[in-house]
Amino acid sequence: MSQLFKDLERARVGEGVELDSLLAAVKWSADGLIPAIAQQHDSGEVLMMAWMNATALRESLATRRVCYWSRSRGKLWRKGESSGQQQHLVSAALDCDGDTLLLQVDQHGPACHTGRRSCFYVALDADRARVSSEPLIDPDALYGKGQA
């Protein structure tokens, strides 16, 4: 853990550091990424997990529209750019180790490419997995046939 995060452990409410200093202390992966968990701000529902790089995080903070790094596309991905199901940033926080982001968002429509509200719809039991929710929107309607 960086010294900056150690110092923040003892900081008082309202104390802070410049964003550039904080981002320099974040535990980015070898690819320059950090996991970002999106949670609906008013209900607490966990919607999805995606990856951000520093550029995506800075853009999200500046525009209040959530932007991720798409590992499959190899480029920035503004949530909802192809489906219309945007996420608007309410707040963002780093965990105590500086290696995970929690985004409080206002999700418009489904968060998942399957058309479900949340990406976490495969419930696990001791001996079985089951689908726990129906799609809100047919993925073909979101992305066009064969695009999801």
Automatic annotation (TrEMBL):
GO terms for biological process: L-histidine biosynthetic process. Zn(2+) binds at C96, C112, C119. Residues 48-121 form the Phosphoribosyl-AMP cyclohydrolase domain. Transmembrane segments: none annotated. Its cofactor is Mg(2+); Zn(2+). One of its GO terms (cellular component) is cytoplasm. It catalyses: 1-(5-phospho-beta-D-ribosyl)-5'-AMP + H2O = 1-(5-phospho-beta-D-ribosyl)-5-[(5-phospho-beta-D-ribosylamino)methylideneamino]imidazole-4-carboxamide; 1-(5-phospho-beta-D-ribosyl)-ATP + H2O = 1-(5-phospho-beta-D-ribosyl)-5'-AMP + diphosphate + H(+). One of its GO terms (molecular function) is phosphoribosyl-ATP diphosphatase activity. This is Phosphoribosyl-AMP cyclohydrolase. It is found in: Cytoplasm. Homodimer. It comes from Halomonas salipaludis.
